[in-house]
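Hi there,

I know you've been waiting on this one. I reran it after we fixed the sequence typo, so this is the corrected version. Both the input and the resulting structure follow.
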Amino acid sequence: MPWPHAPVHKLGDNAVYFVTAGTLHKERLFHDKARLDLLERRLMGLASQYHWQLEAWAVFSNHYHVVARGFPDSANLGKFLKHLHADTARELNRLDGKEGRKVWFNFRDTKLTFEKSYLARCNYVHQNAVHHKLVLVANQYPWCSAAWFERVASPAMVQTIYSFKTDQVNVEDDF
C-alpha cells in the first residue's frame, strides 16, 4: 500500500468546510499589503466564480483559513482551491521575479457536520489574527472577516459565535 503524500480530500459533495492552507516551508511570501490584498481578492473572486459562500476567512503571510459553504451548483472545492493556489502563485512569482517557484505546500480540509464545530471554527478564523498576535482585537486585522461579520451579522449572532471557545479546535496552525 503506497504511503499518502498529502491528506485525503473528500470534497465531492457540497457542504460546509473548514480549510487551512500554508506556503511551502511556512515561508512568509505574502509579507506586505499588496500581496495580502492579492491573496484575499483572489480568494473572494474565485469563491464567487465557483459558487462558494465564504462565511469566515483570514489570510496571512504564510497561510490562510476559510470556512466555506457549498451549494448544489457549487463547483468542487478542490478545483476552487487549486485554481486559487495556481493564480496566486503565478501572480506572486511575477511580483517577486521568481518564475516557477513553488508557493503553496498543501491544504487541509474538514467537513463541518455539527453546529457547535461550525460555530467554534468560525470564531477561530475570526480570532486568528489575535491568536498570532498581529492585532489586539480581531476586527482590526484588515485581511479577515471579523470586521465584515460584525457589520452584517446580528448582535446576537456575533455574541453567540464569539462566545465559542477555540482552545478545543484541533487545527494545525503553527505558522
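Quick highlight: Strands lie at 16-23, 52-59, 63-70, 104-111.

Best,
R. S.
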